């Protein structure tokens, strides 16, 4: 049941960007607990009266809330609030980035995001944070070393572990926007990672694959050690070499 929530007195909403302001007010109401999952949104007429805005503004705000996953509109019933799932939203956004031409752009994205996150992680991360990074590094290396047959399931899991390692570096930066950027681009990043694994793996060629495994694991260990040493020039050199090493696996832009 609707509890009222944060209400601005009539006339206090500025007359510019009304739809954006109403969207933000309703979003904050949900996040603050004034609305619960499944509560019905007040009617258009009630919202118009409550916030002293037009029906067009109310409908625009409802459309925005629908688009970002805060409400769902049911035909003939009205609109209902729903718990916002950040991970689901990020994944939905990131699926729009899967065009092949986007994969080359991931290299530029990583040169900016990864390098800066490493710099900030070296500056801000504590001992417990370094333990988290070591765990992510070990999880990747141990799985790869014990699963040399990269079938579809193993490859998918390995991609998740590699992504998690680099996402952990972003989280250690102490800047909440960098992990969100990584989450937004996660599907493109995972496709990028998968392309690199597949390009360097040869079935029935154990000698070649042993060298590939060594290269993958050493790259993570070298980067982890440089971050632990608080050595930014070394860590930057390792991550850029890692990115450059990956470029050859990506499909070329048309």
Would you kindly provide a written description of the structure presented here, covering whatever features stand out?
By secondary structure, the chain is mainly alpha-helical. The chain has two domains: 18-81, Winged helix-like DNA-binding domain superfamily/Winged helix DNA-binding domain (Arc Repressor Mutant, subunit A), CATH 1.10.10.10; 88-243, Four Helix Bundle (Hemerythrin (Met), subunit A) (Up-down Bundle), CATH 1.20.120. It is 67% helix and 3% strand. It has eleven helices and two strands. The chain has helices at residues 18-31, 44-51, 55-67, 86-94, 101-124, 127-146, 152-172, 177-184, 186-200, 206-228, 232-246, and strands spanning 71-74, 78-81. Strands 1-2 form a two-stranded antiparallel sheet. A hairpin with a 3-residue loop joins strand 1 (71-74) and strand 2. Helix 7 (152-172) packs antiparallel against helix 8 (177-184). It is elongated. Mean pLDDT is 79; it is low at 1-16.
